[in-house]
Amino acid sequence: MTLAPWPTELRAHANGRQLKVSFDDGITADLSASELRRRSPSAEGRGHGAHAPQRAEGLYDHVAIVGLAPVGRYAVRIRFDDGHDTGLFTWALLRRLATAGPE
What we know:
Blueprint: E1 7-13, E2 18-23, E3 28-32, H1 33-38, E4 65-71, E5 75-80, E6 88-90, H2 91-100
Antiparallel strand pairs: 1-2, 2-3, 4-5, 5-6
């Protein structure tokens, strides 16, 4: 059985505007906070719920990461300075984002 790549580093930098993510297979990326916020896997981020906002172009351009909290051994909760903190970013999702780049 092959194990999925495991994160070896998760660190907000550039005043919270970037998330450095590194994996044990050598993949390293700097993911922008605005892209992470836009692609949050939360219910709001997926457009569910009565109060889910429309995502206007540039809506999250100035958002920053203000906290990272591990969730078990499979994900991290990213807290953004706009108050959003309900999306759980799994290691698999971060790995996909690290290799795919922005949409």
